[in-house]
Design a protein that fits this description.
The complex is a heterotrimer of chains A (696), B (100) and C (174). Chain A has helices spanning 4-19, 25-51, 81-104, 110-132, 136-154, 161-192, 197-205, 215-230, 239-242, 248-257, 262-269, 271-275, 278-301, 305-325, 329-356, 369-372, 374-388, 394-409, 412-437, 492-507, 522-527, 568-595, 597-606, 608-615, 620-667, 675-695; strands at residues 58-68, 71-79, 534-536, 546-547, 551-553. With 696 residues, chain A is mainly alpha-helical. In chain A, the strands form two sheets. In chain A, strands 2-1-4 form a three-stranded antiparallel β-sheet. Chain A has a two-stranded antiparallel sheet with strand order 3-5. In chain A, helix 3 packs parallel to helix 15 and helix 8 packs antiparallel against helix 11. Chain A is globular. Chain B contains three helices and no strands. In chain B, helix 1 (4-24) runs antiparallel to helix 2 and helix 2 (28-53) packs antiparallel against helix 3 (57-87). Chain B starts with a helix and ends in a 13-residue tail after the last helix. The mean pLDDT of chain B is 88. Chain C is mostly helical and 174 residues long. Classes of the chains: A mainly alpha (696), B mainly alpha (100), C mainly alpha (174). Chains in contact: A-B, A-C, B-C.
């Protein structure tokens, strides 16, 4: 039954990929949405059945995948608290985004529409495999698959050079991360002799934590490299802002709610393993918070609505990694879950705005949309409040939990930076709200034949890409959709998704209310079994396809280094502090972008170097280009292309031909055409043979 | 006494005369005649050897050789006639189309 | 006595053959070849093979050479055609002579190495026509080959007719 969960969207992919071109849009879109909703249903059922099972887990093996002496990898899926939460998020929010897309992508041709939905379904199938896999290789299948779908979907409008470049960039950068992941997998197998998550956790729990640099640390670091690639942390985050070239629902689904969370999930899945490598965890936390801060600063000055949200995603992912790094596994997953709601909401809202403005994405050309797009405005506002961390919305609880655990863990510097980032989050998010929805409609962006967005060119885009006008989706094919006169709010399909997500952003946090203010923190208790090691029955050499093996929970000593117990009063103080910071951030935004617009420009000018630095994303892309891309390109061109391919391979092939030709030119002179000469040579041969016999 | 050896030597000499004729003469008919000489040399060998071994098979074989020689001469001369029609000449050097 | 007869006939044969090879006119070559055949027939008789001798004269000299004569007359090839230049180089003659001498030398030297092989007394059973008939027409003899040879002759007849026929377009003109 578990197989149905990824199988349903996969079947949707097959149908749309093969027949989609001939199906009307309602059918192809309907099939895709139905597949997702059905998968959601099955996920619910699986989650419930897992709850009532022993150890709260259900594992099913479907076929023998790899069977090679010591390496036995069955294709097995496992539902336990952690993965059940993930599949519900993926299928639930995924379904909403599918429904939203039916309206958003409506102006594509039938073939393109079906292609979009086939990719989207395929992505969902792979993501579900990633989350449900019970071994590293099965997860890796999903890991690679979502990377592929990300490439396909980012470059969906493949006739636009910038989209193509962004897709390639995403794939290549992801691949670098995947390489680290593979090496990490190898090391895990080398250390533990198994690649099954439960078994690895069990074996890890039998060892002491590795306090110095050792094999486990290296393995977990390599796995973390993979996570930085997939989840856009330093140093492999550079693909995510460019990924905004894809359609907005794609950004919502893949680059906010699901794929980018894979890295966080992976660490959560291997909590016991990572718990035994404190050095890695410190690095994880450090990179997480550094990324959060860096992305926050960049997001503050971006002018493209989607870019702001992209950097916001990178920043929030940093928070999740911070949580994982201090051992607060369920806090990190909690934030993953709430973030999925409000970030998807924010992206879909921005999509509604772009849709209404017929492709306009520059904040400097917006304003005053509150009156004309009420549903969009109110849902967006809810999302913004949630991400800023205003109680009682979801973001408050999750973010606060992370900050609390960081503080309790003793990392005061990280806590301070975390607070600072929270301030930035509130500020840039409300800058977005005020610029887009309030005030009067402006057309401030420098008008040019092509909007020369400062942040537009990815470092590697084709120099002549100035032809990409209006940097939005190729949406305006003569659609007189609101150029000035009358804008329409989100159509029903889109509005439905927005409203449901808004409700989610409000209530989702209630499952993790901390005891300090009266809640029972149900989520943490729920997720607990997933972060513990279970003793397993010894694996039999023949594994049966069917239900999984019994496990019994192993009592563990606390795996994290000493945590200070934080008193309730301190907890409440910290909570109040974070709320205050959030409100302060909103206030700053209100001052600069609601009341006193020119002040913002003045500040920008007076701190011009800093402003330029931020606007150009700290020139990281340019740095990578100079350090890595150009040298590799040079090497490939000179050595591999000209040297090996043209010279060696072509040379030898042509050489063989030339050899044959030369030899035959010389040999054919034997054919003189003279009969007598032939007769003479015939006899000469006879003479020679005869002579040889005589000699013997 | 005449021994077999002498007959064999005779046959060898006739054979070499035949081969000399094949690639020395520039007339197709003469070439065919030289081939006949060679065949005759072989015939002598067979008859002599048959006599030596007291078997009748030697003569039988010469019988067949003669038959085949007749067939070959017929076809060969037909070819000569056909070739003559094309080039009005009987020199083998005129037919060099199979040159490289 | 035998020896003298042998050398006479052998001499005739060899000289005639040399004449065939070196005669200017094809007509002369054909005539000389007939002489050579006659010499050979004599040799066959000395070898107690009367049947072979007779068939030699009848078939070779009587049929095949007549055929050659006809063709020579038909093609008016009395003389050798000198108009076409020789394709082989100037040394070809020397090379060819050398080659033939080489063949002769090899053959002769091979034979010289043999022991003296003398003939036993003649036996009628070997060379009588009855014996030959028995060998040719009995099934554990050469009967099958005999029949096949008849097919061979048929095929060559047909082939010769086909090859030497005038092309169709010419015959239609008439």
């Amino acid at each position: 039954m578990l197989l149905l969960i990824p199988l349903l969207p996969f079947v949707g992919f097959l149908i749309n990929a093969s027949l989609g071109r001939r199906l009307p849009k309602s059918v192809s879109g309907g099939i895709a949405c139905a597949a997702m909703i059905a998968a959601f249903g099955v996920s619910l059922m699986s989650a419930f059945s897992a709850m009532s099972a022993a150890d709260h887990a259900v594992q099913q093996t479907f076929f023998r995948w790899i069977s090679s002496d010591a390496l036995q990898i069955p294709f097995a899926l496992r539902v336990d608290p952690l993965s059940s939460l993930m599949i519900l998020v993926v299928t639930g929010i995924g379904s909403l985004i599918h429904i939203y897309s039916t309206a958003y992508m409506h102006e594509e041709t039938d073939g393109e529409y079906a292609r979009y939905f086939s990719y989207l379904n395929l992505f969902a199938a792979f993501m579900l495999v990633l989350v449900l896999g019970s071994t590293f290789p099965v997860m890796f299948v999903g890991w690679e698959g979502v990377g592929l779908c990300s490439y396909l979907l980012i470059g969906f409008w493949f006739r636009k050079q910038s989209a193509v470049d962004a897709g390639k960039k995403a794939f290549v950068v992801n691949r670098i991360g995947d390489f680290g992941f593979i090496l990490g997998m190898f090391m895990v197998f080398g250390i533990f002799g198994t690649l099954d998550f439960q078994e690895v956790a069990y074996h890890a729990s039998q060892r002491a934590p590795e306090l110095s640099m050792g094999a486990v640390t290296v393995a977990t670091l390599l796995l973390f490299v993979g996570a930085t690639g997939k989840s856009a942390q330093i140093p492999l985050y550079v693909w995510l802002p460019d990924a905004m070239e894809g359609p907005t629902p794609v950004s919502a689904l893949i680059h906010a709610a699901t794929m980018v969370t894979a890295g966080v999930y992976m660490i959560g899945r291997n909590a016991v393993l990572f718990g035994h490598a404190p050095i890695t965890l410190s690095i994880v936390a450090g990179i997480g918070i550094a990324t959060a801060l860096m992305a926050g600063t960049i997001g503050l000055v971006q002018n493209d609505i989607k870019r702001v949200l992209a950097y916001s995603t990178v920043s929030q992912l940093g928070y999740m990694f911070l949580a994982m790094g201090v051992g607060a596994w369920s806090a990190g997953i909690f934030h993953l879950y709430t973030h999925a709601f409000f970030k998807a909401l924010l992206f879909l809202g921005s999509g509604a705005v772009i849709h209404a403005l017929a492709g306009e994405q520059d904040l400097r050309n917006m304003g005053g949309l509150r009156k004309e797009l009420p549903i969009t405005y109110w849902t967006f506002l809810i999302g913004a409040l949630a991400i800023a961390g205003i109680p009682p919305l979801a973001g408050f609880f999750s973010k606060d939990e992370i900050l609390l655990r960081t503080f309790a863990h003793g990392n005061l510097i990280m806590w301070v930076v975390g607070m600072l980032t929270a301030l930035l989050t509130a500020t840039y998010m409300f800058r977005l709200v005020f610029l887009a929805f309030l005030g009067e409609r402006r057309h401030d962006a420098p008008a040019a034949p092509a909007h020369p967005e400062e942040e537009e060119p990815a470092a590697k885009s084709v120099p002549g890409s100035a032809g990409a006008s209006g940097h939005g989706h190729d949406h305006d094919r003569g659609g007189a959709h609101g150029h000035g006169a009358h804008l329409h709010d989100a159509p029903p399909a889109m509005a439905l998704a927005l409203i449901v997500l808004a409700i989610g952003s409000v209530v989702a946090g209630f499952i993790g209310v901390p005891p300090a203010i009266g809640g029972g923190n149900r989520l943490e208790k729920f997720l607990e079994p997933s972060f513990e090691a279970h003793a397993i029955a010894p694996a039999s050499p023949e594994f049966q396809v069917g239900e999984g093996r019994a496990t019994t929970r192993v009592e563990l000593p606390a795996q994290a280094p000493a945590e200070h117990a934080v008193s309730e009063s301190t907890e409440l103080e910290l909570m109040a502090l974070s709320v205050g910071v959030a409100v302060f951030g909103i206030g700053i935004a209100m001052y600069f972008w609601l009341r006193n617009r020119p002040a913002a420009t003045k500040v920008a000018r007076s701190a011009a170097p800093i402003y330029t630095l931020l606007l150009n994303k700290y020139y990281v892309d340019e740095l990578y280009n100079a350090l890595f891309v150009q040298p590799i390109k040079q090497l490939s061109t000179v050595l591999l292309w000209r040297g090996v391919d043209a010279g060696l391979i072509d040379g030898s092939v042509n050489g063989v031909g030339a050899l044959v030709r030369g030899t035959s030119t010389r040999l054919r002179r034997l054919q003189t055409g003279s009969i007598r000469a032939y007769a003479a040579s015939l006899f000469l041969g006879a003479v020679l043979i005869l002579g040889w016999y005589l000699m013997r | 006494m005449v021994t077999l050896n002498q007959y064999l030597i005779l046959s060898g000499i006739l054979f070499s005369i035949g081969t000399a004729g094949v690639f020395l003469r520039r007339n197709l008919i003469t070439i065919l005649l030289s081939v006949e000489i060679m065949l005759n040399a072989v015939n002598v060998t067979f008859v002599a050897a048959g006599r030596f071994k007291q078997l009748v098979d030697g003569q039988i074989i010469t019988f067949f050789v003669m038959t085949v020689a007749a067939a070959e001469a017929a076809v060969g001369l037909a070819l000569v006639i056909a070739l003559f029609r094309h080039r009005e000449t009987l020199s083998p050097d005129a037919f060099t189309s199979l040159k490289w | 006595m035998d020896v003298i007869i042998f050398y006479i006939f052998a001499g005739i044969t060899v000289l005639a053959s040399i004449g065939v090879v070196s005669a200017r006119s094809p007509m002369h070559s054909v005539m000389l070849l007939i002489v050579s055949f006659a010499g050979l027939a004599g040799l066959y008789i000395q070898l107690d093979a009367p049947f072979s001798a007779v068939t030699q004269i009848i078939i070779y000299a009587g049929a095949i050479m007549v055929l050659f004569l006809f063709v020579v007359m038909l093609l008016n090839a009395h003389t050798e055609d000198e108009a076409i230049p020789a394709r082989l180089g100037p040394h070809a003659l020397k090379f060819a002579v050398l080659l033939s001498l080489l063949i002769a030398f090899e053959l002769v030297s091979a034979i010289i190495k043999l022991d003296r092989l003398s003939f036993d007394a003649a036996s009628r059973n070997i060379s009588s026509v009855a014996a030959i008939g028995r060998a040719l027409y009995s099934t554990n003899g050469y009967a099958f080959a005999f029949e096949v040879t008849s097919v061979l002759i048929l095929v060559s007849m047909v082939g010769a007719v086909v090859i030497a026929r005038r092309p169709r377009s010419e015959s239609r003109e008439r």
